[in-house]
Amino acid sequence: MFMNRAVVVVIVMVVLRVNTSRPILLVPGILGSQIEAKLNRTETKHWYCSKTSDWYLIWLTLQQLIGPALNCWADNFKLIYEDGKFDNTPGVQVRPKGFGNLDGVRYVDNLEIISYYQVMIEELLKIQGMKEGVSLRAAPFDYRYSPPSGKTTRYFNRLTRLIEETYEINGKKRVAIISHSMGGLIFSTYLETRPLVWKRQFLHSWSNIGGVMGGALKLVKAFVSHGVIEEVPDVLMSRLVHRRVARTVMSNYWMLPRYPVWQEDEILLRTPTANYTVTTLGDMFRDMEYPEGESKWNAVKNGVYIGDPQIPTYCFHGTDIPTTASYFYNKQENFPDQVPQEVLGMGDGTVPYRSLKICHDWKSTKGVYEYSDEKEGSHLDILKNKDMIKTIIKIISGNESEGHV
């Protein structure tokens, strides 16, 4: 019995439309993963804060950051540091939203005002055969934690399983990784834990966008005066409340500027009585009457890997955009609660160029793409840069044999 020729043609066309695309995994950066929480607390600091709840979006529901609700958010979102370890506030469970799918990385916030990977997702889904949740997936994480921690180890284990599963369900096609910001540093450190034979089997390439590979000055400001959210009036969103939370977040210490990316004598923050460098950050924490910060910094500062990743890597980032190079206070009484003044250098508006360009020198790096226009290259807007997205699609659409270093 023979099938009609037209039927055969239709079947062939259907097969060609299935699994023709290479699987892609998105790894978000700091603030880029939506995070859910569930409360079962015995007490709260404020009478108006809920003790119990079902799962809800704690990062980022914008309404929680305004007025009295901000205090409840801060108390639930902060980390506890005891016996050299970071952990959630007692009675608070936390999980990234949509691990393995795209739900938690499209937008930063619940009102879909702050776009994250959304534009890129729309473009990637135009690739023939690309299917959401199957060949296009994401690995969001609780960005408050960083290596070395049990939480990050568990994330690394989940990431391994997700990559292997994605490889299997897509016809054993190696997976292309796209990371952004802190996600680049997380993925670089993750790769150091994987053997070369595993990388060659499961990974096709890595597009590292705006990777904070050597740290960023803005974290210094987060500790002294601000938290991680800027340019919002204090009457709407108290920066000192956000600072209180930022001082508890493990990853903020992990992404502070590091030696030798910054030399020992380069000033990160200056006051009339002291100059603080990468080697004297402990003095900064003590001088701002937060000595616990030194212990937290010492606990994480060596948990970074930025060596050669051993897979084909492509670097994308902004350049020649005014970026903080250092901070200073003219009056000692303003340190640390007032906002410091800044000295500008160049980078992507958030991450200094010296930190972004670390990936340029890796043996595995196959291409470097820089964008000097602020709308195309700034730290967050670069994710909406369609020229960059087209380039990434061309890289990912290359032949399977191109995946080995």
Describe this structure in words.
The chain starts with a helix and ends in a 9-residue tail after the last helix. Helix 10 runs antiparallel to helix 11 (292-300). Strand 10 (269-271) and strand 11 form a beta hairpin. The chain has a 6-stranded parallel beta sheet, with helices on both faces. By secondary structure, it is α/β, with parallel strands linked by helices. Mean pLDDT is 92; it is low at 1-19 and 399-405. 30% of the residues lie in helices and 19% in strands. The chain has helices spanning 5-17, 69-77, 118-124, 150-169, 182-191, 196-202, 218-226, 239-246, 250-254, 281-287, 292-300, 353-356, 374-377, 386-396; strands at residues 24-27, 35-39, 56-59, 79-82, 85-88, 92-96, 136-138, 175-180, 203-209, 269-271, 274-276, 313-318, 321-328, 341-347, 365-371. The longest helix is centred in the middle third of the chain and has 20 residues, at 150-169.
Tell me the layout of helices and strands.
Elements: H1 5-17, E1 24-27, E2 35-39, E3 56-59, H2 69-77, E4 79-82, E5 85-88, E6 92-96, H3 118-124, E7 136-138, H4 150-169, E8 175-180, H5 182-191, H6 196-202, E9 203-209, H7 218-226, H8 239-246, H9 250-254, E10 269-271, E11 274-276, H10 281-287, H11 292-300, E12 313-318, E13 321-328, E14 341-347, H12 353-356, E15 365-371, H13 374-377, H14 386-396
Parallel strand pairs: 1-7, 1-8, 8-9, 9-12, 10-13, 12-15
Antiparallel strand pairs: 2-3, 2-6, 4-5, 10-11, 13-14
Helix pairs in contact: 2-8, 3-14, 7-8, 10-11
